Amino acid sequence: MHHSSLGQAMPATSRRTVLRGLGGAAVLGAGIPLLSACAGSSASSDPKTVTVGSNASDAVPKKGYADVYAAFTKQSGIAVDINTKDHNTFQEQINTYLQGTPDDVFQWFAGYRMQFFAAKGLASPIDDVWKTIGGNFPSAMHDLSKGQDGKYYLVPLTTSPWAVFYRKSVFQKYGYEVPTTWDAYVALCKRMKKDGLVPIAYGDKDAWPAMGSFDQINFRLNGYDFHVELMAGKASWTDAKVRKVFDTWAETLPYHQEGAVGRTWQDAAQTLVAKKAGMYMLGMFVAQQFTDKADLDDLDFFAFPEIDPAYGQDTVEAPTDGIMLSKKPKNHAGSVKLLEFLGTAQAEEIYLKADPSLIAASSKADTSGYSALQKKGYEMITQAKHLTQFMDRDSRPDFTSTVMQPALQKFIRDPKGIDSLLSSIERQKKTIFASG
Amino acid sequence: MSSETTTKIPEAATVPPPGAATPKRRVPHGHQRLLTRRDRITLGFMAGVPTILHVALVWVTALASIALAFTTWDGIGFDSIQWVGLQNFKELFEQNPQFWPALEHNVIWFVVLIAIPTPLGLFLAVQLDKKIRFSRVYQTAFFLPVVLSMAVIGFVWQLVYNPDTGLINSVIGANEPGKYIDWIGDPDLNLWAILIAASWRHTGYMMILYLAGLKGVDPSLREASALDGANEWQTFKNVIFPTLRPTNTVVLVVTIIEALRAFDLVFVFNKGAEGTELLSILVTNNIIGESSRIGYGSAIAVVLLLISLVVIIPYLVATFRKERRA
């Protein structure tokens, strides 16, 4: 009876279905690692298509890039296959993406983050492209596009400066003047507080905005060269110069919006939109929060005030985005053509028509279509003696994300105990920079 | 040789006494009918595929991450793996300012879940077990948070706690300069704020577990204790609760697991900023993303694994011992 129940009561068909299901599961299991690899490549070995890995997932940049690629296809007859991923996801998966089968070209950032992948052999040098497009860019952009080996790896497209943003109408109403020195800046904060405003809007829930504040004070106080050394892990975080940055910063912390660690930058920007805050130090993308045309026209900015006259306001933080060539592009010739096109002023103008919150990286691009804000930003960048990217683009991302982000959050919440914080940063920095 | 043996077999079969031969012949014969070739292949697949999957996805990966804990690796190419011995652990225990708080928060998470939502869930279950009106409605209402994904819960509560526009600060007027209560950023508050959200969900979970346990309690026990003149509390304390022992074990294990794997809620809430660091979040921050400190992150994961083992092994030993006795 027992054997019959096992051999017969279970009909063959059902056993087969079970097997089929199992086979399916096995295929599925085997498919998981493949899936991630598939995502990057949409089969294109034909010379008429170039694939692009894009992190421009927000509506405005997405449309801007689509317009640029459409113009390229029209001009060259080469189709562009865009593979867009969520901005943050793209960033988080960049390691695996570049090691798998990446698209022919991919969008990425200038600075250390580009040099890192170039040094790892995950991107191809594009010196030949720069022979054609080199004349379109100012020398600062040339430097930003080179790897540590001196070869070019990136075609810069757009940039935008970090500065102190304010409402013209608010400054007019209270009779404030744009501060150019640190003392004037602190005095203005005091006045704003007396007038019932939040002097400096602030939100650091996302953990990166505070890195921008550090950058500004550091290169104003200690100069560009020291900033670069510090970011590269060469200078020490326990140096008295760094300690002074935090002391200077702490001087203005009482004038920063309270509860910053629990607030997103968008919410902080809303206090500036609502005219409850006097100033906000952020990138020019803060303009995205000004959805009303009248509010946007009222928005203006000034360069972060001078702290040490020896350095003045010579450095501007201007994160630059661009496009790189992957290690083994399937369509090399087509990719080079696309990169050459993207390096022209024409391509950048098409992009900026769709996204007016940024500035063209090329000095040849036509600035007549710029808004007042863009024009000012453009001037600021072209007149800068030095350009920096941003702490997490100028230094190792593993160091900035696992050490600096929590440390700076801790500091702005409770500025006491700077010394122990700095020695902790320095200890962790040493081990991280010592590894690979 | 082969022809000889085949010819000998029928002879050999006929020679032994019939009484002994019949069962001997029938058993192999029966086995053959029981498992045909196809059956054996089928069974091989049924046992083999899950085994392969299990070994590949659980054991290989677990052992690989233990091995990686003693290396440093940026995740690019296998040749960049460097053996560093115990350095990751040394760094973790001595230098990482987030490690000890994270461990502490995992423990607090467990203690709070056991101390507040678990008794609360038991209380609700006892009330619902009394066959009151609309019992199903209450059950659904309390159980609803368990059905929601943790990420959704984190998002909803983050809206409640938002310092500027959130429900709480707006209602009590704490969203103005000078009166701020920073539920999300203040390390003295944020863990408790999140634990309220976690408890809100856990209560429903515990309620369902206990309700299932209570349904299994023999009604004659209640009758007997009522006949003995015990009041409701005495009945519960001396009769019902002791019979819930198996449920309590499950509750304990489930709560420990919840406390150790707590991640999604906090990650959505504030990404594990100061005050809400958790081991799972440290692992993620170090491994996922551009940081790619895979060796270091694995070391944290190994610590998490060891803690889990310390908790799970005694449980398994106890369970097996009970089974052997039974």
In short:
The complex is a heterodimer of chains A (436) and B (326). By secondary structure, chain A is α/β, with parallel strands linked by helices. Helix content of chain A is 52%, strand content 13%.
Task: Explain what this protein looks like in three dimensions.
The complex is a heterodimer of chains A (436) and B (326). Chain A is α/β, with parallel strands linked by helices and 436 residues long. Chain A folds into 2 domains: 49-160 and 318-388, 3-Layer(aba) Sandwich (D-Maltodextrin-Binding Protein, domain 2), CATH 3.40.190.10; 162-317 and 396-434, D-Maltodextrin-Binding Protein, domain 2 (3-Layer(aba) Sandwich), CATH 3.40.190.10. In chain A, 52% of the residues lie in helices and 13% in strands. Chain A contains 21 helices and 12 strands. Chain A has a 6-stranded mixed β-sheet. In chain A, strands 6-7-5-8 form a 4-stranded mixed β-sheet. In chain A, strand 1 (49-54), helix 3 (59-76) and strand 2 form a beta-alpha-beta unit. In chain A, helix 3 runs antiparallel to helix 17 (345-354). Chain A starts with a helix and ends with a helix. Chain B is an all-alpha fold and 326 residues long. Chain B has a domain at 99-276: MetI-like fold, CATH 1.10.3720.10. In chain B, 74% of the residues lie in helices and 1% in strands. Chain B has helices at 2-14, 18-34, 37-68, 87-94, 99-115, 117-128, 135-147, 150-161, 167-172, 190-215, 219-227, 232-243, 245-261, 264-270, 279-287, 294-325; strands at 71-72, 82-83. Chain B has a two-stranded antiparallel ribbon. In chain B, helix 5 packs antiparallel against helix 13 (245-261). The longest helix of chain B has 32 residues, at 37-68. Chain B starts with a helix and ends with a helix. Chains A and B meet through helix 1, helix 2, helix 5, helix 14 and helix 20 of A and helix 2 and helix 3 of B.
